[in-house]
Structure formats: structure tokens, C-alpha cells
Amino acid sequence: MNFDNYKIIPNYKTNKTDLFLAEGEDILACEKTLNIVFDDDYKEYVSTYGSGILGGTYVRIYLPETIILTLEEWRNRITQYWFWDEGKEVLTKEEVLSRDFGTIRIGDTYDGDEIILYKGGYFVLPRHSEMIYKTGNTLEETITWLCSSGILTEAFPEREFEPFDPDELG
């Protein structure tokens, strides 16, 4: 993953730049528990930056522990509140909720859009649209799409990363 444009900025509450990183064993344990394989970009991102908000408070990528701890609640909510039928040519509800292919939520945006991983590809379930978007096969492609495509929010160049203690995130 190309981190050349990324800059760590102080947390707005603590004014510190302490990072909350994933360890290799945490990543492996998550992959084993959920029967998935993360791409190298995801592994590098959570090992280099960890828990926080990227791009001027826009993109949040979850640590492996957060993915595991929130997965059932997320699946239950998506089951109950599914409304992305316009995107069924991209992914169906059954595919999104599939346990066979290890569909998981790996992050979200400030606007409430959800970033999911399905069969090695990244997709976004937007909060304010019934469409589903395929955003790439790597986390870097997905972050670039989220920050630069202009589809879900106005495109922006900032790649500032503000670290947050994952225990303090909602």
C-alpha cells in the first residue's frame, strides 16, 4: 500500500499521535475465526496505522478484533434493514449476508456508508443510496475510490490519519 501521502495528525481529544495497531497474530486469528483472507493492503494498514479516521475524518477501517466483535450485530441489522435492492446486480442480500464466503464489514465512513469484503473484493453499502458499489480488490483501491471518486462525497485530497483508541469508538 502506498502511504506516501498519509500524515498522522494528533487526536482532537487527546492531542496525541499514539497509534493503536493490530498485531500479526490478531490478523491471523481473525482470518482463521471468520474463514477469510485479508489482502496485504488491509494487513499493512492496520499494522501501520491501526484504529483511527483517515481523510479528514471520513474513512474508518476496523481492527480485526472490532470486526469479530461487531459482526453478528452488523449481520442482524443488515438483515432487518436491507434496502440496497438497486444494487442487486452488484451483490444480492444473500451474498452480503453469506457466511459461506466470509462476507464481513471491515470499515465505514463518517456518513454511515459501510465497507464490506466479499470473495476478496471490496464493496460499499451507502447509507443514502440503494445502490451497491464495487470499489476494488484491495484496501488501497477502496480508500482511493471513497476519497476520490466523488460518488458518495465530494472528492478530497487529504490523507490525514487521526488515531483513536478503539475502545473509545462507537
Written account of the structure:
The chain is α+β, with helices and mostly antiparallel strands. The chain has helices at 24-34, 40-48, 64-81, 93-96, 139-148; strands spanning 7-8, 52-54, 59-61, 104-109, 114-118, 121-125, 133-136, 160-163. The chain is built from 5 helices and 8 strands. A hairpin with a 2-residue loop joins strand 5 (114-118) and strand 6. Helix 1 runs parallel beside helix 3 (64-81). The mean pLDDT is 93.
State the end-to-end distance: 27 Å
Strand numbers in spatial order across the main sheet? 3-4-5-6-7
| Structure summary, number of beta strands | 8
Q: Choose one word for the global shape.
A: globular
Helix/strand class:
alpha+beta
Beta-strand percentage range: 15-25%
Order of SSEs: EHHEEHHEEEEHE
Helix content: 25-40%
How does the SSE layout of this entry go?
Elements: E1 7-8, H1 24-34, H2 40-48, E2 52-54, E3 59-61, H3 64-81, H4 93-96, E4 104-109, E5 114-118, E6 121-125, E7 133-136, H5 139-148, E8 160-163
Parallel strand pairs: 1-8
Antiparallel strand pairs: 2-8, 3-4, 4-5, 5-6, 6-7
